[in-house]
UniProtKB/TrEMBL annotation, chains A, B:
Top-level taxon: Bacteria
Pfam families the record matches: DSBA (PF01323)
Keyword tags: Isomerase
Protein name according to UniProt: 2-hydroxychromene-2-carboxylate isomerase
Catalysed reactions, semicolon-separated: 2-hydroxychromene-2-carboxylate = (3E)-4-(2-hydroxyphenyl)-2-oxobut-3-enoate
EC class name: isomerase
EC numbers for this chain: 5.99.1.4
Annotated organism of origin: Massilia hydrophila
Length: 199, 199
């Protein structure tokens, strides 16, 4: 049995989009158990001294990143439109994702939120987004939305973000395999390979 | 005929090492003409506001990068030892590389300098390194060393670095294919694919 892969991601992170759209299928193919780990990237970046995303703070890299994103999305066969708002706030759907981390609807819910941000250029930090992304996946979307607005769900996301910081996570997506860190969508294959070698 | 790939690199850059050791063979296999573009990364990073390498200035990312380097080198079958001095000064061998950019000895010369830095943990910004790396490749290594110490060679490297800045290059390695930028060792395959599609 391979080691599990932990997938640390955030809906506002563009390279998290590329990894999230692929990971459930890739992990299944590699027979590697997948553990979803939504966390807030913003507070971590601010602690590391960034004002916003490094892709905003560093103009040259930022210009480049959108070309790279378009090419990589095309390579994966994923739709992509550069968002008019970046990095987009994602706190509410992130709380829902944390509630859903071990649920069968997790993957599809997350892909729908991501598509809204990265293909439809629509805001995601609102009730409409969450309800639409849960529609058909759970019996009562509004019950989950209600739960996501309560203090325990807020605390849980804060705690998960603190855990990311403790692990030394400095960007997203990050994959953790048996304590080994892999950073960036382009390291997903390395991380899965590593999980297999531990099997 | 595919478009050429320009390979912008610096001996002091760790991900340039991974790309440089592979690129001649990979470009040949892809039948993509290779143009060597040595430039100094330090002045560019300073202009962008960094004190040293981003892998030194950002502790968390720096810690990660050496793990990633070891794993990536192993994946490529390349030797790797984390240098005791990073980023290592490389001005003299960079000037030689610029002199050799269109010479048949370029690839082997560069690989030898890189191995000295990244596998043997030895200084490279000195006469010994240059003479050893040229040995057997050219009739008179000391003549090239002499030439590298003259003002035209210094000016040429400054001009090449200014050209990198003009192109918007913010890191190394960077591949340019028909004006399209690809940044990082892990985009070499994308860059070669792009060069082929233009063929």
């Amino acid at each position: 049995m391979p080691a599990p892969i932990e997938f640390w991601f955030e809906f506002g992170s563009n390279y998290s989009y590329l990894a999230l759209m692929r990971i459930e299928e890739e992990a299944r193919r590699a027979q590697v158990p997948l553990h979803w780990k939504p966390f807030l990237l913003g507070p971590i970046l601010r602690e590391l001294g960034w004002q916003s995303s490094p892709f905003v703070d560093q103009k040259e890299k930022g210009d480049y990143v959108w070309r790279d994103m378009a090419r990589r999305a095309a390579r994966y066969g994923l739709p992509f439109r550069r968002p008019s708002d970046f990095p987009r706030r994602a706190v509410l759907p992130m709380r829902v994702a944390l509630l859903g981390s071990a649920q069968p609807w997790m993957g599809e819910f997350c892909r729908r939120v991501m598509l809204r941000n990265w293909a439809q250029d629509a805001a995601i930090d609102n009730d409409d987004c969450v309800l639409a992304a849960l529609a058909g996946l759970v019996a009562d979307p509004s019950a989950i939305l209600f739960q996501a607005r309560q203090e325990p769900a807020r605390d849980a996301l804060r705690a998960q973000t603190a855990e990311a910081r403790r692990l030394g996570i400095f960007g997203a997506p990050t994959f953790m395999v048996a304590g080994e860190m892999f950073w960036g969508d382009d390291r997903l294959e390395d991380a899965l390979d590593h999980a297999r070698t531990l099997g």
